[in-house]
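[AMINO ACID CHAIN]
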Amino acid sequence: MTYVSLGDLERAARDVLPGEIWDFLAGGSGAEASLTANRTALDRVFVVPRMLCDLTGSTTEAELLGRRAALPMAVAPVAYQRLFHPEGELAAARAARDAGVPYTICTLSSVPLEEVAAVGGRPWFQLYWLRDEKRSLELVRRAEDAGCEAIVFTVDVPWMGRRWRDMRNGFALPESVTAANFDAGSAAHRRTRGASAVADHTAREFAPATWESVATVRAHTDLPVVLKGILAAEDARRAVEAGADGIVVSNHGGRQLDGAVPGIEVLGEIAAEVSGRCEVLLDGGIRTGGDILKAAALGASGVLVGRPVMWGLAAAGQEGVRQVFELLAAELRNALGLAGCDSVSAAGRLGTRVPRYG
């Protein structure tokens, strides 16, 4: 089937996924104010296009962490992708490889990180800080040995946010889906009424990360270290001082603190604060190539895309994910040209406005 927009893939995914698995993917924390605000805030940003520009040689390519990518995006870390398709992370990683974009392997991957990295392309590894520091650093070493190109350290999950949909569903992983980078058996499979087994599992495994944790990771790897979950300009400044090579401006897709500001609202401020001293990416609510253009105009070198990739995976496996990348590439090429930009870097010179009406 051919899809015209990512919204088409979202509807297709919802049609095929069981209700509680759809809720696990689509839901946010609490009343989902931040989840909703991510889209509302992006929709309120308008760019000021430029005319009569030379578009000869236009390209969607961009540099991410020192290497060229076909699009200014990476696949965001998403846990337990075999919930959405039997091939899970392997199918999504193959599609990312073929599209020429980095794929971020999650600590909570349902396929061992070595198997996902072996697909090829540009694998990154996402790290959660564990109660056992040695296990955290062992994951970093495994990622290095497997050929991952960066450590994306998620810093906004001292514990999992209260996700009402999962709690109402008493959500637990099916026995066929495991946290493959840990022991196969875990609390994530024990269903309890009114509680999330996945949240219980992470409460047992995760520890709150600190700036000392960042320093420890930085000292134990030569790979680029990217801090994901930064929303305050002061934290962005400290990230640079701590040796971070990049930051991801993100409220975790509205899945952690409900009421946390949307990333697009603070992106410009954070980009100005770091002033080119580290890479800045945006995560949360990206649904069109036009959204990527807005992020670039506000100072991001690229974006992370999570849920839409899972929609493609659920709808049609690797082929569905391929179509996600093709749609975003076509939309970004169109948006760049209509805005008078021959490249993603040129979009950084566009003006933006948030209208006062509505």
Observations:
- The mean pLDDT is 97.
- The two ends are 37 Å apart (CA to CA).
